[in-house]
Input
Amino acid sequence: MTASFSMFSSLKDKIAAREARVVTVGLGYVGLPLALTINECGFPVTGFDLNAARVAAINAGERVISYFAEDRIARARAGGRFGASSDPAVLAAADIVLICVPTPLSTEREPDLSYVVRAAETVAAQLRPGQLVVLESTVWPGATATVVKPILERGGLRAGTDFFLGFSPEREDPGNATFDTKSIPKVVGADDAQSRELLDRFYSQVVARTVPVSSLATAEAVKLAENSFRTVNIALVNEMKVAMEAMGVDVWEVVQAAATKPFGYMPFYPGPGIGGDCIPVSPVYLSWRARDVGSSLPIVDLARHNNDTAPDRIAGRVIAEIAARSGQGAEGARVLILGVSYKKNIEDTRESPALAILNRLEAMGAACDYHDPYFPVMPPTRDHPGLAGRRSAALTEAGVAGYDAVLVTTDHSGVDYDLVGRAARLLLDTRNTYAGRPAPAGAYVKI
Ligand SMILES: NC(=O)c1ccc[n+]([C@@H]2O[C@H](COP(=O)([O-])OP(=O)(O)OC[C@H]3O[C@@H](n4cnc5c(N)ncnc54)[C@H](O)[C@@H]3O)[C@@H](O)[C@H]2O)c1
Output
């Protein structure tokens, strides 16, 4: 059964005229850039978020995300067709609803769809015939059809008949100066032809290129395949780092040289472990779903294990390097952690390996401070609640010289690495930050 032709063509016309009213559910790292990009393409957009403080800041035109252009939100507000709200009633007026809420791991390290379920319930309560609902959050293949769709249909409307339903994975890379929401091709999937066509027509107005796929589950699986590919390759290069160091070979130099091969190779660089809410999370969703359908992904699982244990290996190495130089054991060793964001130049500590290393070092008896220009005060995090409220240490020569070791965990720009290089008694670098910079002779180790 297909939806009534008039509903379908009415939404198609509104999309073509850029008059379809769009509501994004969730105004985080994904939902907010998406909402702004859609608005910048001419559509009227309202962002719906439960976080009233964030809604107020956005409506006041504040920058909110550090790598946004200073006046991006203010310009959207001034245009008169962009705003934020915590009132679910805005959903009733929408033609298109895009759900961009978190999909983290539970405390048992399993998929946690509770935010998606709650968002779907809110959308369901306002659902009206002819709306297009799209899930953008990362989920396991099958979740839109078996978790979200039944919630939306609770009021009696049917997907593909009374309303349209799609999945389009978000590929946002916060802080990436080369690719933004608009220039990253967008995969769009649906289980019926009309939903797929509407999805395709809508995103074609917003992004450079769309990639239609045959089903909701295929579109869901694309995202997990992309991130699992990264997970496996990061584990591989971190494993090679250890083996090549024993061979007297610098893996960073190897990767840079290998990357000159014009085909069949893609560079991945070693680091302190993996962070963010994507790379550590997606493979868990994929693996969980594989088990659910009686299959398995041992290579992905091994890579996950390798990545999950990377912070422990780094912490152990820090203590070993200190002991080898000064005889100082873990107990009472003083370590400065340089950078707590999970990656450079963004203010995000979700799943950050730096925090796991810090915690591990302290569990071993060391005393740690951190320095991070993005976090003058440590924010609350789900995995490391005890660290909240700590303050970033000032970066002075005398201060740096007081530590047994400085460990570079995040290579933010704007940090005075030369000062650290001059003053550190022992400088341990997980990011190859000192390539091309002066490092203390005999006291610098890439780990
Ligand atoms: N951050 C990334 O780099 C990235 C990249 C690609 C995909 N994703 C995926 O996109 C999704 C969203 O991630 P994010 O980084 O934007 O999360 P986020 O934590 O930055 O933002 C989520 C927002 O949703 C709001 N929210 C939560 N529940 C809500 C509800 N029921 N109704 C309305 N608002 C609600 C929160 O208040 C928050 O502002 C996740 O599935 C994630 O895996 C994230």
Summary: The pocket of nicotinamide-adenine-dinucleotide is lined by residues 25-31, 48-51, 54, 100-103, 115, 118-119, 122, 137-138, 170-172, 174, 276-278 (CB under 6 Å). The first helix runs from residue 5 to 16. The chain has three domains: 5-214, 224-307, 309-446. The mean pLDDT is 95.
